[in-house]
Design goal:
The longest helix has 29 residues. With about 350 residues, the chain is α/β, with parallel strands linked by helices. Helix content is about 55%, strand content about 10%. It has a seven-stranded parallel β-sheet with strand order 3-2-1-4-5-6-9, with helices on both faces. A two-stranded parallel sheet has the order 7-8. Strand 4, helix 7 and strand 5 form a beta-alpha-beta unit. The chain is globular and about 65 Å long. The chain is built from 13 helices and nine strands.
Amino acid sequence: MAHQVQYFNHKDGEYVPASKEYTEKGQTSRKWEEFVVKVVKVVLLFFPTLIMEWYKILLGKKKSVKGQIALVTGGGNGLGRALCLRLAKEGCHVAVADIDVIAAERTAAEIRRLGLKSAAFKVDVGEQRSVEQLRIDVETALGPVDILVNNAGLLAMLSLSEGTTEDVQRIIDVNFTSHIWTIRAFKDGMMERRRGHIVAVSSTFGIVPFGRTVCYSATKFGVRGLMEGLNEEFYMNGYEKDIFVTCVYPGFVATRKEFMEYLEQIGCRAPIHTPDEVADVAINAVLRNRCEIITSPLYMQIMIKLNALFPNELTRLMLGLFVDKVPQLTVREEEEEE
């Protein structure tokens, strides 16, 4: 790690450019015979591997999580509450973490009435120290966490031109950076026990961006990259059969009243799901160790997946199928002034 210090402790004039010998050496030192063997291996195993993986995803036996400890951030209300109750249905004991501790207590009480252990914890997921204290509190009260569900988030319908500097930083801290803090807090224990599952709630806006949610979309794209990278890191470190990751991409979920009013304002015709419906799809994906799941209907999943292949004008044309009117920024600014 010593050679990486320069990236964290910059000093003027210390940059040393790489010489051409490195690229020339890389070109001439490749063993093409080995590469050809690997290509043949990929060709021969491509379809058998694809069929086997899809069989496990769609028809494979679900794993049991009965008796495991699950932690859900933002578990007091909405989708977080639904995820807590769905995990309890599978026999999990649930730590309900939320900045709204009153709501967290209500959810925990519901779970205890089902005959399972549950406790509420106050946490500000955007603060690293608060997250570290959460780990200590949860492990003391319930035990080591087996399933970490990063659900907490701010649904900020803001253009990049809107909001204060503090607003923008808060969106980033809660929606993205918090995932790093919680994963760092709990993954070492999972690695020691060689058992765990990390779940992140992203958004379809983390696959297909929307121009009135620039900061929100950026954080959800970040969560997507974090989870895909984390999955590969577990594989490289030999934990691919012990620790699993699942990134959940919900579409529109009927949670906050003001969000539903906004969708009505823009004439949204996209499917809107209840928190219970999304939680059911998400936890079923966890039980099958799926790396990702889009909770929208199949036709929407196909459109979302194909989005990267479409030119911008076609994507915007298709947006008109689901949205009547997107407010112009100047109009929104005038409304705020009134």
